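Quick one, probably user error.
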């Protein structure tokens, strides 16, 4: 199964991807996580991406396409994969078409104000990458990861200012993907304001239909 998850920042892509990966036994490819790793390691690629990411813009199509092209060749992708955060532009989607035949594309939608409120309340575990949200998915102990006992941190781009830019970037650059995949008849649209379990059920029902 080869899937793409699209949605504005904090629409719930990462949370749903983690659940779908378990359900279908496929690989999770988050381009945002891959880039954050490069930034943390201080590689040349990370240094190129750092400022753009902090401001809420997009790294170049060329760069991200090259990363994905290599990643999907790896062994864990043989059974399939979920691309979370890629493609983000029509150019990326066209390149992806040349690489693989997608089964389905899931679009998780929610109003801008909901996403902005959510992203500023988001917390991440620096060790295992688990994501929490003070509003609707709090850790058992405030500020501490349930699994690792590690202190949770906030992403540098989960501020109001960067968040607004990221949402604007989504509308300008990524929203056209809804039409792109809709025209191909492989798009499933799911309401991202529903409870997390209901979103998962709606996605699985759409994928298994
Ligand atoms: P995410 O974790 O998916 O919200 O991604 C974090 C940031 O990484 C984005 O705001 C972009 O700056 C960058 N990024 C991730 N995926 C892509 C992509 N497919 N194209 C361009 N930039 C990306």
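Nope, works fine. Designed sequence:
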């Amino acid at each position: 199964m080869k899937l793409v998850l699209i949605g504005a920042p904090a629409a719930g892509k990462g949370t749903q991807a983690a659940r779908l990966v378990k359900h279908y036994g496929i690989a999770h490819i988050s381009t945002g996580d891959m880039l954050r790793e490069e930034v943390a390691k201080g590689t040349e690629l990370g240094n190129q991406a750092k400022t753009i990411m902090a401001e809420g813009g997009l790294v170049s199509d060329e760069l991200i396409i090259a990363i994905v092209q290599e990643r999907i060749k790896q062994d864990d992708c043989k059974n399939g994969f979920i691309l979370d955060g890629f493609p983000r532009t029509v150019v990326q989607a066209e390149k992806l078409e040349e690489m693989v035949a997608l089964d389905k594309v899931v679009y998780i939608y929610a109003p801008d104000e909901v996403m902005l409120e959510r992203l500023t309340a988001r917390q991440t575990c620096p060790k295992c990458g688990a994501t929490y949200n003070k509003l609707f998915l709090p850790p058992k102990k405030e500020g501490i990861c349930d699994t690792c006992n590690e202190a949770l941190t906030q992403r540098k781009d989960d501020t109001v200012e960067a968040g607004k830019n990221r949402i604007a970037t989504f509308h300008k650059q990524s929203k056209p993907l809804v039409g792109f995949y809709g025209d191909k008849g492989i798009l499933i649209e799911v309401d991202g304001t529903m409870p997390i379990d209901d979103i998962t059920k709606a996605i699985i029902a759409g994928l298994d239909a």
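The chain has nine helices and seven strands.
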